[in-house]
Amino acid sequence: MSKPRKGLAVKADLSDIFNDVDAVIPPANNRKTALTIEKALEIIVRQMRASGLRDRTIHDYETYVMDFIVKTDVEFLLAIDADAIYEWLASMKVKPATKRIRLKCLSAFLGKCFNNGWLTDMFWKNIQIRVDEEVKEGASEEDVFNILRLLDLSQFIQLRDAAAILTMYQTGIRLATLSALEERHVDIENRLLRIEGALLKNRKVILLPFDGRLQQLFEVLFEQNRIIREEWSAENNYVFITQSGEGVFNEDSPKSNAIAKRLNYYKRTYGIKNINPHALRRGFAKDIYKRSKGDLALVSKALGHSDFAVTARYLHLDAEEVADKLREFR
Questions:
Q1: In this structure, what DSSP letter does residue 276 have?
Q2: Do 278 and 209 share a structural domain?
Q3: Which of 92-96, 147-151, 219-223, 280-284 has the lowest mean pLDDT?
Q4: Are residues 303 and 278 in the same domain?
């Protein structure tokens, strides 16, 4: 058996060596100082659930806040600073747009911490990520008529699809509005869509004109709709229906839409990438903006937007360009 090493046993009495130094002991009641990020997250998640926020939002908070803790090794809430956040962002091997989404989530969490009185300033507000966003192109007139020329209008489905494509391009309505349109909303004689507020996001009635080509398509389509409804004993008045007389949308699965599926099919088959509901709506917006010589208010009204900022994003206008346009209304 080996002897214990003598150097490990300290005989000198050092029990009073620090007695003349004032100890700095944090107050027992100062919970903010010792509040961990994880504990703060736990409390905020409970508050979010009590407020009825959706599970997906809560999951994002939990995912990105915990990722911040792991990547930065920061444990306490008051230890978070701009440098730690930049360190976290730098650790990500993702696109700038994704970084911005994650930063937005962390910032929202910190904002709730501030509202709870756990943080005294909102330093994260000055953290910015430069994102060169992909410019989403709108469908051009060439795109639209290239696909329309390829469709066989002697076939009901392709006739319906042609009418749907031209309707979205000439009026800028959303796919959801298109799918809910009834024949009573189409004033064929006056070439006008009279859309009631219940079908629109902003709940305001809007009148949208269309041309003679679409007028002709509607006339033929309505007759075909009548025949199909009689054949299948379908009781609806939708403008756009399936070959069995039902609406093109599935009420049990809102994302399932016959028109959207067909447009995706044409995109793959004919290689025309800008034929989708969003591209057609953007194409309408850009065409009106150009023809009206930059009348942002007109485009915003036609799209049913609540403010000019949304319209500006659609048109990919920068802040200075929007400001210049808004000055025209002052």
A1: S
A2: yes
A3: 92-96
A4: no
**Range of the structural domain that residue 78 is part of:** 31-126
Are residues 252 and 185 part of one domain? yes
| Both tokens assigned to 321 | 């360009």
Split at pLDDT 50, 70, 90, the class of 30 is very low
Beta-carbon count within 10 A of 201 CB: 13
* Measured distance CA(85)–CA(99) in Å, rounded: 11
Amino acid present at 125: K
Is residue 150 domain-shared with residue 227, that is, in the same domain?
Answer: yes
Residue 72 has pLDDT above 90, yes or no: no
Spatial distance between the Cα atoms of 165 and 178, rounded to a whole number of angstroms: 10
Q: Where do we find the tokens 């599926």?
A: 261
Decide: 35 and 77 in contact? Cβ < 8 Å: yes
Q: Does residue 322 register a pLDDT over 90?
A: no
The verdict on 268 and 305 lying in the same domain is: no
pTM attached to this predicted model:
0.60
Whether residues 151 and 165 share a domain: the answer is yes
Cα→Cα distances 93→85, 185, 299, Å:
15, 50, 38
In this structure, what CATH number is given to the domain that contains residue 93?
1.10.150.130
Residue of 272, 271, 165, 259 whose CA lies nearest to 213: 165
Contact residues for 240 (Cβ-Cβ < 8 A; gap 6+): 160, 163, 164, 178, 179, 181, 247, 248, 259
Q: Is the pLDDT of residue 3 over 80?
A: no
CA dihedral sign, ordered 22, 28, 33, 34: positive
- Do 166 and 272 share a domain, yes or no? yes
Q: Is residue 115 very low, low, confident or very high in pLDDT (cuts 50, 70, 90)?
A: very high
- Rounded distance between C-alpha atoms, residue 4 and residue 18, angstroms: 29
Question: Mean pLDDT, to the nearest integer, of 23-50?
Answer: 72
